[in-house]
Amino acid sequence: MKGYLRRRQENEVLARRIVMLNEEVDRGIETWKKKQEEDKMKEEHRKSLLLKPKGKALMKKKSQTET
Predict the structure, then answer these.
(1) CA dihedral defined by 59, 64, 65, 67, rounded to 10 degrees?
(2) Where are the coiled-coil regions (predicted)?
(3) Which of 23, 27, 48, 56 yields a CA-CA distance of 20 to 30 A from 37?
(4) Could you write out the DSSP letters of every residue in the chain?
(5) CA–centroid distance for 16 within its chain
């Protein structure tokens, strides 16, 4: 009976550790996703601040995209 109780206790400890590690991985993935989204927003904002073509350059660009 002692071996059964010891193995049962070891299994409970392992189960708790698995749950803890799983939660840690989930938090890490969530943090990574948030960082990726923030980086994407920063990149879009940076691109929106770039100079945009005007006048002849804009007309030339439009004619190239139409063909």
Answers:
(1) 130
(2) none
(3) 23
(4) -HHHHHHHHHHHHHHHHHHHHHHHHHHHHHHHHHHHHHHHHHHHHHHHHS----THHHHHHHHHHH-
(5) 27
More confident residue, 38 or 67: 38
What is the longest distance spanned by two Cα atoms in the chain?
89
CA 20, CA 29: separation in Å to the nearest integer? Answer: 14
What is residue 55's DSSP assignment? Answer: T
Tell me which DSSP letter residue 8 carries.
H
User: Tokens representing 2?
Assistant: 């002692």
Average pLDDT score over residue span 24-43: 98
Residues 61, 53 contacting (CB under 8 angstroms) = yes
pTM of this structure: 0.61
Q: How far is CA 42 from the centre of its chain?
A: 14
